[in-house]
From TrEMBL:
Species whose genome carries this gene: Roseivirga thermotolerans
Function field: This protein is a component of the acetyl coenzyme A carboxylase complex; first, biotin carboxylase catalyzes the carboxylation of the carrier protein and then the transcarboxylase transfers the carboxyl group to form malonyl-CoA.
Oligomer and partners: Acetyl-CoA carboxylase is a heterohexamer of biotin carboxyl carrier protein, biotin carboxylase and the two subunits of carboxyl transferase in a 2:2 complex.
Signal peptide: none
Name under which the protein is recorded: Biotin carboxylase
Length: 447
């Protein structure tokens, strides 16, 4: 087992990893930018190293700085968390070159699954259901129009290096194709330095359902059932839940089997997520694989009583998985609490938290790195906490979540708490009958 792990991240996920390491008797090293010197992950780690100024490209994305921090503290492993360098093949490769275990996917796995067009081709070859579309990248508008007519509109252009909804355009006819192509290429080149596009049939009335998987060095994988991530705004998840209100046991078994097939097809090692689009007919299609721990992993932990971070560390240390699959024993839901003003287009709201009270009680968990007096820097993602609630039924979870949200006091900044309270009161949400487009018609006027 590792003696010391450096966490190459910040905020709540860094603190989450530190907690599990402490329980496992493993020493921890925090890295931090100058903007994060007062963050709790710095305070609770055994050691902390400053790796640069506030901009992430000068600190958390600076591979030489992180490797240097690992070397001077004699860390024998690095946990990347999510975001930043967690799915960076070069970082995984450099860690191996310096004899430091990367607690995440290998460079080869990241390369295979990080490029969406390559990932889709890999999954198709493995027999995992995929959305009809182009075989790899499109070479021209003419090729795209021809394929669109064969599949039937609507279709969607996607950036091969994309994420967060950037480089995506829905196309409903031949005459819209050229502009959508130009816009998507320009946006993907600016965001990712790669303007490659591929084409898919657009799945109407979709739900976003993902399967948590864990694989080990023997090539074996298991799944821990699904998470429904359909409540999104501009392709950014706001609420996640498990089990999905749209999933039957039959679909769960089929989707779980497909996820295991996907993981084992690439010999996946560690914790990862296979993301699917589920249509209104109950058919599902591979969308992408995240070769890292997910923001929403706590709800899976709550319904299966399974520490995913601990399992990541054990697998990285060469300890094989049990091989059994895990199914929900409870219901759980996560609300992402962001420093944003939902009444004004979710505008970021950095600043000093003047007063803070965290909710509690049975079935309530809060993952956060903030405290009263903490100043939220404007340099990073706006998520400041995750409120996770579990219960015996979805109805109980919604009632408990509303109660917990009403107890959650954050003063000095704007947050998404008012939005989440209103969502918990919304009849459409409570019915469980919604798609990824649900918030497009949601009434934000009374927040």
């Amino acid at each position: 087992m590792f003696k010391k792990i450096l966490i190459a991240n910040r905020g709540e996920i860094a603190l989450r990893v530190i907690r599990t390491c402490k329980e496992m008797g493993i020493k921890t090293v925090a890295v931090y930018s100058t903007a994060d010197k007062d963050s709790l992950h710095v305070r609770f780690a055994d050691e902390a190293v400053n790796i640069g100024p506030a901009p992430s490209n000068q600190s958390y994305l600076k591979i030489p700085h992180i490797i240097s921090a690992a070397e001077i503290t004699n860390a024998d492993a690095i946990h990347p968390g999510y975001g930043f360098l967690s799915e960076n093949a070069e970082f995984s490769r450099v860690c191996a070159e310096y004899g430091i275990k990367f607690i995440g996917a290998s460079p080869d796995m990241i390369d295979k699954m990080g490029d969406k067009a390559t990932a889709k081709a890999t999954m198709k070859a493995a027999g995992v259901p995929t959305i009809p579309g182009s075989d790899g990248l499109l070479s021209s508008v003419e090729e795209g129009i021809k394929l669109s007519n064969e599949m039937g509109y609507p279709v969607i252009l996607k950036a091969t290096a994309g994420g967060g909804g950037r480089g995506m355009r829905i196309v409903k006819s031949d005459k819209e194709f050229q502009k959508a192509w130009d816009d998507a290429k320009m946006e993907s080149a600016a965001a990712f330095g790669n303007d490659g596009l591929y084409l898919e049939k657009f799945v109407e009335e979709p739900r976003h359902v993902e399967i948590q998987v864990v694989g080990d060095s023997t090539g074996r994988a298991c799944h821990l059932s699904e998470r429904d991530c359909s409540i999104q705004r501009r392709h950014q998840k706001l609420v996640e839940e498990t089990p999905s209100p749209a999933i039957t046991q039959e679909i769960r078994d089929k989707m779980g089997a497909a996820a295991i097939k996907a993981a084992e097809a690439i010999g996946y090692e560690g914790a990862g997520t296979i993301e699917f689009l589920l249509d209104k007919h109950g058919d599902f299609y591979f969308m992408e694989m995240n070769t890292r721990i997910q923001v929403e992993h706590p709800i899976t932990e709550e319904v299966t009583d399974f520490d995913l971070i601990k399992e990541q560390i054990k697998v990285a240390a060469g300890i094989p998985i049990s091989g059994k699959n895990y199914y929900p024993k409870l219901y759980a839901m996560e609300c992402r609490i962001n420093a944003e003003d939902p009444a004004h287009g979710f505008r970021p709201s950095p600043g000093k938290i003047t007063n803070l009270h965290l909710p509690g009680g049975h079935g309530v968990r809060v993952d956060s790195h903030v405290y009263a007096g903490y100043s939220i820097p404007p340099n990073y993602d706006s998520m400041i906490a995750k409120l996770i609630v579990s219960g015996q039924s979805r109805e109980e979870v919604i009632v408990r979540m509303k109660r917990a949200l009403e107890e959650f006091v954050i003063e000095g900044i704007k947050t998404t708490i008012p939005f989440h309270i209103k969502l918990m009161e919304d009849e459409g949400f409570k019915s469980g009958n919604f798609t990824t487009k649900y918030l497009e018609t949601f009434d934000f006027s009374k927040l």
